[in-house]
Amino acid sequence: MGVRHFLTLLDLSKSELLGLLDRASALKQLQRNHQRHDVLARRTLAMIFEKASTRTRVSFETAMTQLGGASIFLSPADTQLGRGEPIEDTARVLSRMVDAIMVRTFAHSKIETMARHSAVPVINALTDDHHPCQLLADLQTYREHRGALEGRTVAWVGDGNNMCNSFIHAAHLLDFELVVACPPGYEPLADLLRQHARNVRVERDPALAVRGASLVATDVWASMGQEAEQQKRKVAFADYQVTRRLMDQAAAGALFLHCLPAHRGEEVSAEVIDDPQSVVWEEAENRLHAQKALLEFLLCS
Ligand code: CP
Ligand code: NVA
User: Is pTM beyond 0.90 here?
Assistant: First the structure.
């Protein structure tokens, strides 16, 4: 097989995904025990950020450090990308120097172009359509607390955004039911809803959506790049806040996930995010472990 990229969760088979999640938990344990694991010594990850980031940047940089390698932060403000050098040329040049390229950008087609012209693995660290690295951490977190998601129900409450699209891929791969509660006009990608109708459905009423759900997840109402729609979205999503009352209607012991950053009082109440049912801080930490497993998978297997 040629070079492996990670542009969406579907770049992994089900067994690869499950193996990677197990490996993420094992690497977490190694780190807890302060055991060295420098399998990426002398390897370099280039990290292109065209949007802001806290978790993704810090987790990838730390991952490369802990694996014995190095990372280079690149932003359009101080590279030739910002001055119009084509993405194709950037991919060709970087892949002659580094061992993998991580990209956070706007249009998903841009990362696909990058991958087509790169001789080294390209990792999607968020596009307008997908956020597969976050899903690795989310799935790892659920498994560590409650075991397999297969056959269970997950409720996505809020915007049918990049995170929601990646949750649809996860539902397909791991065969769980995903119920998306969103206002009209804010559905996930229509193609995904069609292709994965076996595993996903849209339910307008959040209370009905969370019924029987073992996991409730949400995200901001206005994603990066949608700042101008903030006020309009606040109105459209007013009935879609994850509250204590909503969580009480989910299955007993349901967990709450949020990729962060969160807006308390908008998509989630302060009470829910700071409740023990919420495992968002561990979810954030698992970005590090899941991405170490991903880097090892892409560069060492
Ligand atoms: N969840 C996530 O990707 O966070 P950052 O935007 O801080 O990287
Ligand atoms: N949907 C959010 C996720 C941030 C991690 C965004 O794209 O801004």
Answer: yes
